[in-house]
Write a structure and sequence with these properties.
Layout (H helix, E strand, L loop, with lengths): L6 H23 L5 H7 L4 H29 L1 H21 L3 H11 L5 H12 L5 H29 L3 H21 L13 H24 L4 H21 L9 H4 L2 H29 L12 H6 L2 H21 L1 H21 L4 H29 L5 H28 L11 H35 L3
C-alpha cells in the first residue's frame, strides 16, 4: 500500500493512471473532425464512415463491464496493461489503415481500452491513502469529459496542419507513454474477488449491449420503425433478460445483481444514464450550431477548430470541479453534490436554449455545464465506491460507465433527431427551433437526474439509519 505521507509514492502512480485514462478519453472524439477527410481519402460512404465511431462505442461498452470484472478477479494492473496494449495495437492499425474496413477494425480494437476507467478507479481505491481517494476519483472521472472536449480542438489543429493519420500516430505515442508509466509506477493491487469466468453471462451481456447500442446508433439512419431496428431492440431485451436470469442462478456471476439494487449504486446508475444522455446531446449538436453561417439567422460560421474552442471552458471547469467535489463530497454527502451538479447542468442548457445569440453566452454556458458534469461524474463514482466492497469496485464502476455510454448514445441520437426533425428554412439551413428543442430536452433530462439524486439521497439516509455502522 502507498504511504499517506509519501507524496511521491502517490503522485507518480496517479500521474500514470491519469495518462492512461486521458489517452482513451481523447481518442473518443479526436477522430470526429477528421471524418470528412477520412471519407474522401478512403472512398467511403457516409454510412461506412459513421462506423468509425459506432465500432469504437460498441466494443467500449462490452470491454467496460467484462474487463472491469476480470480486473477484480485477476489483478487490476494486469488487466489495465492488457487493455492499454490492445489500445496501442488498435491505434497502430488505424494509423496504417488504407481502407475504411481496416480503419473500422482498428477502432473496434481501440474501444477495448474503455476498461481503463473502472480499473483505474479500483487501483486508486486499493492503493491510495483513504483521504486522497475521493479527490483522485473526482479528477479521473472528470477526465472522461475533459478528453471529449479537448479532443475536438486538438484534432482540428492536427488535421489542418498535417493529415488525419497523425491523429493516431500522436495518440499512439501517448498510449505507449501510459503503458510504460503504469508498468513502472503502479503496483498490482492485492485485492481480489476470486472466481471462475462466467462465460455464458459474459456472452449474453455482450450480445445484449451490442444489439442495444447498434439499434440506438443506427436508428436515425435505418428508421426507428424498420424491421432491423425493432429486431435489434427485441433481441437486446431478450438477451439482457436471459443475462439477468443466468446471473441470478450461478454461484460466481459476472455481475452481482444484488449489488445493482443497493440504493447508492442504483441512484448513481440512474443518474449516470440521464447525465450521459444530456451531455452527449449537447456535444452532438453544439459544434454544428456554432458552425452554421449567420445567414441562417443563428450560428457564428465557426471553423472546425473554432467550434472545438467553444468546448474549452467546459473542459477547464471539469478539470477543477472533479477534485473539488472529491474534497467536499465526504462532508456534505455525494447524493447532495450530485443534485447540485444536475442543477448547474439544467441552468447551462437553459442558457443554450434561450440566449445563444452571442458567442460569450455559449462560452459561459459551456463553463457552467463543465462544473455540472465535473461535479456529477465525480459524485457518481464516489457514491459507488463508498457503497461497495473493494473487491467489487471494478465490477460496479464498470456498470456505471456502461450506463453513461448507453445514456450518451441515446442522447446523441435524440439531439440529432430533434435538429433534423425540423424543416429546412428558406435560407437552406436547418431551423433554429430544432437546436432549441435539443437543448430544452437536455435541460429536462438534467432536472430529472436532480430529482433522482434527491430521492436516492433520502433512500440512502433511511438505509443508513436502519443499518448503523
Amino acid at each position: 500500500m502507498l504511504s499517506p505521507g509519501n507524496d511521491v509514492g502517490v503522485h507518480k502512480p496517479f500521474a500514470a493512471l491519469l495518462t492512461a485514462v486521458l489517452s482513451f478519453s481523447l481518442m473518443q472524439t479526436m477522430v470526429v473532425p477528421a471524418l470528412p477527410d477520412i471519407q474522401h481519402q478512403l472512398g467511403a460512404s457516409t454510412t461506412a464512415a459513421s462506423w468509425v465511431l459506432s465500432a469504437f462505442l460498441l466494443t467500449a461498452s462490452v470491454a467496460t463491464g467484462v474487463l472491469g470484472r476480470l480486473g477484480d478477479m485477476f489483478g487490476k494492473r494486469r488487466l489495465l496493461l492488457i487493455s492499454l496494449s490492445l489500445f496501442a495495437l488498435g491505434t497502430l492499425v488505424c494509423a496504417l489503415a488504407d481502407s475504411i474496413g481496416l480503419l473500422i477494425t482498428g477502432r473496434a480494437v481501440q474501444g477495448l481500452a474503455a476498461a481503463a476507467f473502472p480499473l483505474a478507479f479500483g487501483l486508486v481505491r486499493d492503493e491510495f491513502p483513504p483521504e486522497r481517494v475521493p479527490a483522485a476519483i473526482g479528477l479521473i472521472s472528470a477526465t472522461f469529459g475533459i478528453g471529449f472536449g479537448v479532443g475536438l480542438v486538438i484534432a482540428g489543429l492536427i488535421v489542418a496542419a498535417l493529415a488525419w493519420q497523425w491523429i493516431f500516430w500522436i495518440g499512439l505515442m501517448m498510449i505507449l507513454v501510459a503503458i510504460a508509466a503504469v508498468a513502472v509506477f503502479v503496483r498490482e493491487s492485492p485485492v481480489r474477488s476470486p472466481g471462475r469466468v462466467d462465460v455464458p453471462g459474459a456472452l449474453l451481456m455482450c450480445g445484449g449491449l451490442v444489439a442495444l447500442l447498434l439499434a440506438i446508433s443506427r436508428g436515425h439512419t435505418w428508421g426507428w420503425g424498420s424491421p432491423a431496428i425493432i429486431g435489434l431492440l427485441a433481441g437486446a431485451g431478450l438477451l439482457l433478460l436471459a443475462f439477468a436470469l443466468v446471473e441470478s442462478r450461478v454461484k460466481q456471476p459476472l455481475i452481482d445483481l444484488r449489488l445493482l439494487a443497493r440504493p447508492a449504486v442504483l441512484t448513481a446508475n440512474l443518474a449516470g444514464l440521464i447525465i450521459g444522455f444530456a451531455m452527449f446531446g449537447v456535444f452532438t449538436v453544439l459544434p454544428q450550431f456554432v458552425q452554421t453561417p449567420p445567414a441562417a439567422g443563428y450560428g457564428f460560421g465557426s471553423s472546425v477548430t473554432e467550434a472545438g474552442l467553444f468546448m474549452l471552458p467546459m473542459a477547464a471547469a471539469m478539470l477543477f470541479a472533479g477534485p473539488v467535489t472529491g474534497a467536499i463530497g465526504p462532508r456534505v454527502g455525494f447524493p447532495a453534490t450530485l443534485a447540485v451538479s444536475c442543477a448547474f447542468g439544467t441552468a447551462a442548457y437553459l442558457v443554450f436554449a434561450t440566449a445563444h445569440e452571442q458567442p460569450w453566452t455559449i462560452y459561459l454556458a459551456a463553463g457552467v455545464l463543465g462544473i455540472g458534469i465535473g461535479v456529477g461524474f465525480s459524485s457518481l463514482v464516489n457514491l459507488i465506491v463508498q457503497a461497495v466492497e473493494p473487491r467489487q469496485t471494478g465490477e460496479a464502476t464498470g456498470i456505471n460507465t456502461i450506463m453513461r455510454t448507453v445514456g450518451g448514445s441515446l442522447g446523441a441520437q435524440a439531439a440529432a433527431t430533434a435538429v433534423a426533425g425540423h424543416p429546412v428554412t428558406e435560407t437552406g439551413f436547418l431551423a433554429e427551433s430544432g437546436y432549441t428543442t435539443a437543448f430544452v430536452v437536455s435541460a429536462v433530462a438534467m432536472a430529472l437526474a436532480a430529482v433522482a439524486a434527491l430521492v436516492g439521497r433520502r433512500t440512502i439516509e433511511r438505509q443508513a439509519i436502519r443499518q448503523p455502522g
